[in-house]
Backbone:
């Protein structure tokens, strides 16, 4: 059976996340995907696109505006919050957990909604994972930088070798039950204060 | 044992009571630990409540009723045992328009400002560019109080002007860009408009209805039943937070707490204005004291009067243009739960009204009311047009409105 191409609008102020979701949804057969990242002119674009499905992240301040637009829209096929149809509560719960909400026009086959939602949830989770990994990597880099600087300060002020400086940081960390990076930051901060930086 | 509750909120000053209950240890005294989930739209606050991310949420009161009645999404009964505050919103206009409505820096007179706005609205309409006014949500008291004022001033909200939804953090931008001509929004967002010089506060919503219900603490009804003990503990903790909140000694420290990044993430100096009921109404003007601006704690301000829920339902019928339905009215009334409020506070010495419903807008001079415990003297709770709302006759009330 031939199905008309489904028009999916992705509303996301994060262009990088939007493109990750778009890439995921492009696997869908018979789907046309539109990405809206700009808050200004959002409703006018929405009217032009006349989407069957709208995906918007839970952290988007435009959600209330969008819901109002759908409520007063004179279009025949206006998307409504997916919660109106509670046939698949677990899928909705999964999407809320992932941080995405969906609006769907009435009458769209539920298996088609399901496949969009599943893909969107997977992509949202993947993006969150990437963000977390990036944050960890950045944290590690910052930690390493602080430890290097602290070692240098100790080496210069106490005239000790690099392994000895590291051993001092580690000893202090163990005795105070803190991370080496925290001790290193304290050393750097104290040094900056004393140097009047 | 400590009970944990997750509370959803939007960064607005009237989210203060649960936050201060936690920060000042009142929650802990009641055996509670509160965790907060901050969001930026009411839709998301509601989704998290409905899907269990939060146990309770700071919510615009009409949205609790709309959700219960299934307006816009599947019906899910909500229950609100506690009103988080009365009023606290302002109506702010672009500077040039504001100067036509009042003398900038002074609060307008709602009758006079309404009549002048009517002229401005008609002129704008004749030019083919109707005035655009922003509200924070279709189902907000902001929307209902703005519309109440407009309609009573001879301005038809759906024909003579355009009312549009604007997220609170974007109100100042929307005024600056001319996207809207005015807005009704909660603090600190009107003060942000004034500070940026893009808007002038003309009215406080308290001038439209002196004791108008504002945000509520909402639970899913089954969750309130399951967590009845912790919910009642939270009510007691929030009453203690309210007593702390209204004491001028604590204003500075409370403004500083609310300003933190995890709560409102804003300027303590602006938050202090609504806490102290001292607002700067126009850029560079001296602060004006208006004691009713945000009404907290006193006169059982947090008591969920069933008549308040019924007034909100009457406005939903009025502006959604739906037929009055006695069953819906009863379901709307049940959203407000004075029984839970009473059960939480009985024996604490806190004042409890004797009745659960009253004729709203009927108190025009100080009035001692009968109580279950303690004493309560109600000060005027009038609507600016002197109408009153008798919950026993909602259809008659609706018929009497313009």
Residues:
């Amino acid at each position: 059976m031939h199905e008309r191409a489904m028009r999916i609008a992705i509303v996301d102020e994060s262009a990088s996340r939007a493109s990750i979701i778009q890439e995921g949804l492009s696997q869908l057969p018979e789907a046309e995907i539109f990405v809206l990242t700009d808050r200004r002119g959002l409703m006018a674009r929405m009217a032009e696109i006349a989407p069957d499905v709208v995906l918007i992240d839970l952290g988007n301040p435009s959600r209330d505006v969008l819901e109002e637009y759908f409520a007063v829209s004179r279009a025949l096929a206006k998307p409504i919050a997916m919660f109106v149809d509670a046939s698949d509560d677990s899928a909705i719960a999964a999407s809320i957990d992932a941080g995405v909400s969906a609006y769907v026009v009435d009458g769209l086959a539920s298996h088609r909604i399901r496949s969009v939602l599943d893909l969107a949830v997977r992509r949202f989770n993947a993006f969150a994972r990437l963000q977390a990994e990036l944050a960890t990597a950045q944290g590690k880099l910052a930690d390493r930088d602080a430890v290097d600087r602290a070692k240098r300060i100790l080496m210069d002020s106490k005239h000790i070798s690099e392994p000895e400086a590291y051993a001092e940081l580690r000893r202090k960390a163990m005795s105070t039950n803190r991370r080496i990076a925290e001790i290193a930051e304290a050393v750097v901060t104290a040094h900056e204060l004393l140097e009047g930086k | 044992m400590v009970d944990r509750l997750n509370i959803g909120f939007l960064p607005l000053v009237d989210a203060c009571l649960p936050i201060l209950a936690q920060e000042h240890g009142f929650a802990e005294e009641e055996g509670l630990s509160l965790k907060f989930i901050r969001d930026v739209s009411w839709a998301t606050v509601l989704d998290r409540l409905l899907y269990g991310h939060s146990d309770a949420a700071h919510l615009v009161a009409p949205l609790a009723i709309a959700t219960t009645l299934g307006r816009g999404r599947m019906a899910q009964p909500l229950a609100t045992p506690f009103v988080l505050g009365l009023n606290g919103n302002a109506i702010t206009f672009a500077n040039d328009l504001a100067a036509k409505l009042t003398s900038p820096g002074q609060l307008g007179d709602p009758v006079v400002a309404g009549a002048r706005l009517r002229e401005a609205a008609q002129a704008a309409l004749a030019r083919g560019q109707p005035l655009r006014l922003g509200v924070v949500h279709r189902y907000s008291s902001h929307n209902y109080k703005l519309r109440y004022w407009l309609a009573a001033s001879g301005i038809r909200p759906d024909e003579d002007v355009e009312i549009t939804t604007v997220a609170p953090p974007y109100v100042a931008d929307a005024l600056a860009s001319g996207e809207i001509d005015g807005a009704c929004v909660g603090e600190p967002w009107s003060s942000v408009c004034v500070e940026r010089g893009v808007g002038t506060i003309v009215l406080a919503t308290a001038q439209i209805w002196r004791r108008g219900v504002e945000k509520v603490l909402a639970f899913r009804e089954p969750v309130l039943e399951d967590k009845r003990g912790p919910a009642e503990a939270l009510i007691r903790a929030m009453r203690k937070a309210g007593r702390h909140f209204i004491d001028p000694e604590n204003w500075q420290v409370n403004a500083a707490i609310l300003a933190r990044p995890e709560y409102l993430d804003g300027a303590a100096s602006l938050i202090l204005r609504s806490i102290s009921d001292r607002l700067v109404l126009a850029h560079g003007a001296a602060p004006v004291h208006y004691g009713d601006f945000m009404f907290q704690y006193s006169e059982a301000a947090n008591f969920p009067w069933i008549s308040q829920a019924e007034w909100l339902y009457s406005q939903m019928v009025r502006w959604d243009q739906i037929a009055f339905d006695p069953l819906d009215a009863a379901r709307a009334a049940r959203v407000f739960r004075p029984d839970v409020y009473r059960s939480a506070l009985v024996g604490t010495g806190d004042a409890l009204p004797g009745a659960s419903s009253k004729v709203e807008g009927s108190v025009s001079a100080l009035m001692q009311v009968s109580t279950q415990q303690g004493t309560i003297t109600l000060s005027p709770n009038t609507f600016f047009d002197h109408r009153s709302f008798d919950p026993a006759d909602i259809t008659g009330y609706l018929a009497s409105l313009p």
